[in-house]
Amino acid sequence: MLGARAWLGSVLLLPRAGVGLAASRRGSSSRDKDRSATVSSSAPMPAGGKGSHPSSTPQRVPNRLIHEKSPYLLQHAYNPVDWYPWGQEAFDKARKENKPIFLSVGYSTCHWCHMMEEESFQNEEIGRLLSEDFVSVKVDREERPDVDKVYMTFVQATSSGGGWPMNVWLTPNLQPFVGGTYFPPEDGLTRVGFRTVLLRIREQWKQNKNTLLENSQRVTTALLARSEISMGDRQLPPSAATMNNRCFQQLDEGYDEEYGGFAEAPKFPTPVILSFLFSYWLSHRLTQDGSRAQQMALHTLKMMANGGIRDHVGQGFHRYSTDCQWHVPHFEKMLYDQAQLAVAYSQAFQISGDEFYSDVAKGILQYVARSLSHRSGGFYSAEDADSPPERGMRPKEGAYYVWTVKEVQQLLPEPVLGATEPLTSGQLLMKHYGLTEAGNISPSQDPKGELQGQNVLTVRYSLELTAARFGLDVEAVRTLLNTGLEKLFQARKHRPKPHLDSKMLAAWNGLMVSGYAVTGAVLGQDRLINYATNGAKFLKRHMFDVASGRLMRTCYTGSGGTVEHSNPPCWGFLEDYAFVVRGLLDLYEASQESAWLEWALRLQDTQDRLFWDSQGGGYFCSEAELGAGLPLRLKDDQDGAEPSANSVSAHNLLRLHGFTGHKDWMDKCVCLLTAFSERMRRVPVALPEMVRALSAQQQTLKQIVICGDRQAKDTKALVQCVHSVYIPNKVLILADGDPSSFLSRQLPFLSTLRRLEDQATAYVCENQACSMPITDPCELRKLLHP
């Protein structure tokens, strides 16, 4: 790995950083992890000494982070550390005083970030070391994904993995020379303490600074070469059929037959993989592999929904499962997971017709509307995993979500009439969801012993089996369980709630607009589409600068529910544009309001201007000016917990070409896919969303045109027919007969399409040829889904 481990050991006597969550066979990246193990020693290390426990009296004098808006930075505003936010003031100080920069990156709902803050950054002695010998800089990775990506690339290249918190030491010129993830405060038998690391780096900076600088430059140069993504001499992207089959085979090899999913513990939802499998099924549905792909995706979604990774009481999904059964989760809830999973479950309903999946999708969106929504239409970022079991107590992971048998018995004492044996509502619920007196959490999943006697609700039996066990009617059992869960939900409201990260990110809001728009369209629920519309209005009102045409990355909840911005504003990154454009395209297809399509086109133009690599193809993650000073300017090349912005952009460009006929966007899409050819060929399973875009580009996009009045019943019936069928490679266009409308100006052929006998009429167009006119939704369905 760039030969960096050798100099880390020989120059610093620091071993490579380890990672507690092993990379899976699908090549999961740091974006899939929120914690990492300590640096393990491969060379003798001096002891850190004793007497450096955190101060028992909290330091209440704020540092300069008190002036920031980020919830994560504000969590560190009372550390006894002279923290700086990322910016020129910190860099100038490092250069003037000739000190290394200590960069610490995390986010506000990260469990192991909390641990390191409590153990090390609240420690008075460690605080003095960081303040006197380093220029210490705190970064919220969700505010500055560019900074996070650059230095995570270094940590991953010089160690066995990455995660958060991420801690990296930089030269005053921002080049990294040592990095790791979570450090405990003191040395252990097999691990190096954070204080020891600080003392050794201080010593080496004084004695061997020139060597550090030389090695830092060498590693940076190697990273530049390694991270380059370019078309080179290639003219065209690889064969979609080949990439599709290779990606499917790699997923098939790693598939868990019993529980679903594609890795050993920990298990992540990874919706991009499920989306790929659905697309693969559609194009191979008459083959054994196609059936297999559908089964893998549907079974995974069902096992996840039955498992403890889903919050059965309050709905929504937790971040990941610590075991392969989807049973005990890491309890954090992220907006981007809810957004993507709502779409995945809606697609599962389209494909299977099973209302189990649509119910899960509706539950996700119900949770977001209740817990992650700003009154003005925006969406908050996350809810923490940790909360106090009772007011005034120290926060514990999962405390808000777990239950004892005693609690459930007290809340649900009512007898169940008609059962074949004495039974209470509580006993019925505990049987169905696997609660036990001793608790259903293994000690191996609870190393701190915080969850002894506690239970995570996870479906153990089908409704039919539970009903048969007690001689009850299935619908009666369904009603009893739903009533019991509602009582648990009401009781849970009285517990201290987990911390809410009320920061709002354009990218994740774009994903959530898609979540509401797609689910609302599939289920025919205007109420859900209205949430998407309000989300888009929020983005345009609060996160868009009309004068420059640029998106802002963040905004924040102020006092009284107002919306605030940092000063100067944090401008958007590639993912903000890509995800918002996708959301707007999905919202247009759901609502047929062309204003959203027009805004999507303008944002795409801005994205092309700010991020497009005219020489190598594809998009950089950040603007050139915004990332000035960073040693790398990267193109994200992995679909992980969130899709790569380049993968999403490839889909957006195809759809925009379908909506407008502008050849430039198709050409850009081909250049982008060509630039990523080598990455796809090498590990297609790391880019399933891009492989899906490659397939769409090499197939024929369907333009489904509905001629009719947007508000008319017959128009709505045809539109709903289109939404009921799973057709990922299409654009849905409403032609209202107005030759001056936005879409009529973009696509002149629309003026040739007529309503049949004054009825709403559908045409399915491919390769510049359209089908015969169709007025019957059933006939349209047959044509779309032969």
- Into which percentage range does the β-strand content fall? 5-15%
Radius of gyration, Cα only, in angstroms?
A: 27 Å
Number of strands: 21
Helix content: 40-55%
**Low-confidence region ranges:** 1-57
Largest sheet: 5 strands, mixed
Indicate the overall shape.
Answer: globular
Number of contiguous helices: 28
Pfam families: Thioredox_DsbH
Region (Disordered): 23-62
Signal peptide: 1-22
Subcellular location: Secreted
Can you walk through the features of this model?
The chain is an alpha+beta fold. Among the domains are: 64-227, Glutaredoxin, CATH 3.40.30.10; 255-501, no CATH class; 700-785, 3-Layer(aba) Sandwich (Glutaredoxin), CATH 3.40.30.10. Helices cover 45% and strands 9% of the residues. The longest helix is centred in the first third of the chain and has 19 residues, at 209-227.
Secondary structure layout plus pairing:
Layout lengths: L3 H9 L58 H5 L8 E2 L2 H10 L3 E6 L4 H11 L2 H10 L1 E6 L4 H13 L8 E5 L5 E5 L13 H14 L1 H19 L12 H14 L17 H13 L4 H19 L13 E2 L7 E2 L2 E2 H18 L2 H17 L10 E2 L2 E2 L8 E2 L7 H7 L13 H9 L29 H8 L3 H19 L7 E2 L2 E2 H18 L2 H17 L1 E2 L4 E2 L2 E4 L5 E2 L9 H18 L2 H18 L33 H16 L2 H13 L1 H6 L5 H11 L3 E6 L5 H12 L5 E6 L6 H5 L14 E6 L2 E2 L6 H8 L2
Parallel strand pairs: 1-3, 2-3, 18-19
Antiparallel strand pairs: 2-4, 4-5, 6-7, 8-9, 9-12, 10-11, 13-16, 14-15, 16-17, 18-20, 20-21
Helix pairs in contact: 5-7, 9-25, 10-11, 10-12, 10-25, 12-13, 12-18, 13-18, 14-15, 15-17, 16-17, 18-19, 18-20, 19-20, 20-21, 20-22, 22-23, 22-25, 23-25, 26-28
